[in-house]
Amino acid sequence: MGTSSTKSNASKQRREAAKPDLKPQSSFEISEKTWRIAAISIFVIAAFLRLYHLELVPLHHDEGVNGNFLISLVRDGRYKYDPANYHGPTLYYLTAVIPWIIKILFGPAARDSYGLTTFVIRFIPAFFGLATIVLVFLLRRRLGTMATLCAAFFLAISPGAVYLSRYYIHETLFVFFTLGIVVAGLRFWETRNQLYLLLASASAAMLFATKETAMISAAVLIIALAATLIYPQLLGQGGPRKKKNVESESFIDEVGGGVSLALWIGLAVAVFVAINIFFYSSFFTNYPQGVYDSLKTFQIWTKTGQQAHVHSATTYLQWLTLEESPLLFLGSIGAVFVVFRPKKPFALFSALWAFGIIAAYSLVPYKTPWLALNFIVPLALIAGYAVQRIYQLERGQIRLPIVILAIAVLIAGYQTIDLNFFNYDNDSNYYVYVYAHTKRGTTELVNDIDKFAQQSAEGAKTGITIVSPDYWPLPWYLRNYSRVGYFGHMTQSTEPIIIASETQQAEMESTFGGVYRQVRSSAPDGTFPLRPGVNLLLYVRQP
User: In the 8-state DSSP scheme, what is residue 74?
Assistant: First the structure.
């Protein structure tokens, strides 16, 4: 009869035999020092692109709305999830941590702004964009050294990944938690450490508490995992059934037996439910209504997905071709490699995930460019694997992979700099991520308002009347003005400043006569462009 020690050793040997791809299997190997230097360099490039001049781009309409929720949460402690119009609460609560800390540290000195600045709110999606790259580095043992470095680099300089990491919306948090499920799940399988099971559950909970489309991502991940397990069997590469049964029995033994595994799964489910209840109930200030609304939202968004932002089924492929061509091209090559010769199960999973999620979102009529970030992460993984496989086919010759990588970097790098720092509000068809975006003329409008307020005796108490029906994201930029009225239609006013739509010019003149004068912008027509098709007019009261 074997002792507990010999059983443990036998179990360990079976586990190592069952996981042949835990070590980097690329013939491309580098020292740990070189690996660290390369990883840090990629991270620094990614950080620069995401954090440099973060206030440059004027806030999008959706950013302004999200910022308004944050203002209410930070200043008044109020937040209630609205299933009809907005996404989950994680973005607001995670962002609120910074202003709350500033408020605690500085007290009355921080009373006016509470640390609510454009840099602070955009730092959160930028942070999660960088954290996603860190998660990619943790996949080295599953993808291989070259594949992982290339994947991280592709993600670091992707035009869409950079642009959306500089956007105060939910998407970068969403893809981080999606990849978090994958990384934690892999670590649980590799180490048998139940802590990783709880981390995977927590990531899944945060995913569902971030955005309603979590159901789509979860379904694709499950299908991709199932297909990854089945596909080698269809090719006759899955090994004998007896070996599979031994592996399953070994796994159950190593996590403490069937009862222990069931308890840990139950605890993981409890963690998932608890996190969702905490967030959707606004930490029990909106319980149970918030929890009910979190379930109701799926019914509402099923209808919304058929009515708003409707585009053709090929739209995402067209957008990816225009702005993410290196990822789409190399990702397709990587998918071909794993389909015909599935050497690495995780590479096969990444390909199924990438093209499965593209197919899933393409079937839904509702399409927006920021949803493409869900494709970019798995595409980067399989694109990195493609470069590694080409290197292996070249029998260790680095010339062709370097040429391919250089071309991909030049294309993606140029598009990233052009989009994020020059044409960030260019709504031509080429710049697909610029989707009904706020024009830079809005910044000029805000600067003129601030200048007038500073010259007056009232400062931040300067009264502002907004009669234009379209005004987002102005509530964010005017957040520190205490007397702002958002009417959305023509009304009487005696305030020093009135903001109207270009279509209301004649009505302004007939209503106020010579009481107000128009402040002209630097644009040829003197208006302040808000977004495509919407121009604003600025009026100040005559002395």
Answer: I
The pLDDT tens digits of the residues spanning 301-331 come to 666 655 677 899 999 999 999 999 999 999 9
**14: confidence class by pLDDT, cuts 50, 70, 90:** very low
* Angle, helices 315-323/373-393, rounded to nearest 10 degrees: 60
Nearest to 483 by CA among 466, 500, 508, 501: 466
Angstrom distance (rounded) from CA 27 to CA 523: 59
Q: Residue 188, exposed/middle/buried by CB under 10 A (0-12, 13-18, 19+)?
A: buried
Q: DSSP character for 103?
A: H
Calculate Rg over the CA atoms of the chain. Answer: 27
Give DSSP secondary structure letters for 83-119: TTT---SHHHHHHHHHHHHHHHHHGGGGTTTTT--HH
For tokens 């291989």, name the residue. Answer: 144
Is residue 257 very low, low, confident or very high in pLDDT (cuts 50, 70, 90)? confident
Dig out the tokens for 432 from the structure. 């697909």
Average pLDDT over residues 183-192: 96
Is residue 510 within 8 A of residue 147, CB to CB? The reply is no
Strand 528-531 relative to strand 534-541, pairing? antiparallel
Q: How far apart are the C-alpha atoms of 308 and 423, rounded to whole Å?
A: 26
Q: What Å distances lie between residue 15 and 11, 87, 228, 253, CA to CA?
A: 6, 42, 19, 11
For residue 172, give the nearest of 430, 385, 372 by alpha carbon.
Answer: 372
